[in-house]
Amino acid sequence: MDAARAVAVFAMFAAHIGPPARPEGAGHLLVAFDGRAPAVFTLIAGLSLSLSRGGTRPRPAARGTRRGTLVRCAVLAALGLALAELRSGIAVILAFFAVYFLAAEPLARLRTRNLLVVAAVSPVLGPVLSYVVGPYFGHRVSGRGRYPGFEAVTSWPGFRDALDTLLLSGAYPWLTYFPYVVVGMALGRVVDLRRPGTAVRLIGWGALAVPAGHGLSALALGPGGGREALLRAVADSHPFALNAADPAQAVLAAQAGAIPSTSWAWLLVDGPYSQTPFETVANTGAGVLLLGLAVAAARSGTLRALLRPLATVGTMGLSVYAVHVVARAELRPQHGWVALGAFCLVSLAACTLWARVFRGRALGRGPLEWALHVLVRAATSGRGASRPGGTGA
């Protein structure tokens, strides 16, 4: 799981400092990962949360768990707002994660069957609600794809805008990205990653979901007539895109991929960051497939050794993510394969060295991970919590 998380982090590097994702040569790999990194990262977060609560044998939350969750969310939100203020050009996801974890707390107490129902419904319900509610908050034609900064805590208007951004109109809003958390939580309830045969099941599920999401979208847009409906919506509500080579893509590019609420046909697209049911299904499948491949590799002695450096990066995912945002803001690297390779290699080397220097110590989990663990543990144990690690910190 840590190795899969590291791959998601490196895919974020590719989106932020790599070359354009074009279907040519090695660019095919970037096309395959385009738009999937935050979805996979979020899916694994839900899985981690489920495993911290017992996985396939869920246990009652330890005393102090709610306090620990509040502390974790406050730290993630503060760190996210601070990183956003660096103006790195990256849509920082951490403040959104704070909202996800708050919303996940009551779901973690659901019975497995009920959680599975929520996981099955949310990939469709979330995007549909976003489409329906958007116009009431001024997002019928545009205005999506944002992320909050410190104005969220310095003024009342800023706070209201931040709520809108975090829940509805942001780059990774709760309505359309929280389904990944729910699916990850449900996955942790029904799959034991340590059991033989798990890798095959995960690979099979993922291999079905990815083509299902993209294939059904293609059918709906092509033979289903969705493409014509989109072009009519562009002509009526988005005239700036009429002369573009791909008018529909031009509309989506104007707001970081998120769909407008000008035609129900927008819900049929599956492009990167479009936050539609079809994209959600395909991204979920990609995350499950990646996890299955990582589990299969971990069961092989040779491949397990090769995975270890990746897994080390995965255990420090928060620290690596934060450092890469700072590096992007301060160094302003030129996008390309050289910058992408340098960021990945430096991350592997730095995390391996850090883990070796602090082996056997709590700090070995990563600087920000250690700080978050200390704060959450203080919150959960300060009043007699029975299990300091119960929050999965």
For the structure shown, list the relevant keywords.
disordered C terminus, mainly alpha
Please give a structural write-up.
The chain is globular and about 60 Å long. Helix 1 packs antiparallel against helix 16 (337-357), helix 6 (112-133) runs antiparallel to helix 9 (174-190) and helix 6 (112-133) packs antiparallel against helix 13. It has 393 residues and is mostly helical. Mean pLDDT is 91; it is low at 383-393. The protein has helices at 2-17, 27-33, 37-52, 65-84, 94-107, 112-133, 151-154, 156-169, 174-190, 198-221, 226-237, 247-253, 277-298, 301-315, 317-331, 337-357, 367-381.
Gross morphology is globular
Q: What percentage of residues falls in helices of 4 or more residues? A: 55-70%
Give the class from helix and strand content and strand pairing.
mainly alpha
What's the number of helices? 17
Q: Which sheet architecture does the biggest sheet show?
A: none
Order of helices and strands: HHHHHHHHHHHHHHHHH
The span between the termini is: 15 Å
Oligomer: single chain
Radius of gyration: 21 Å
Uncertain ranges = 383-393
Q: Report strand %.
A: under 5%
DSSP E strands, number: 0
- Calculate the mean pLDDT score and round it: 91
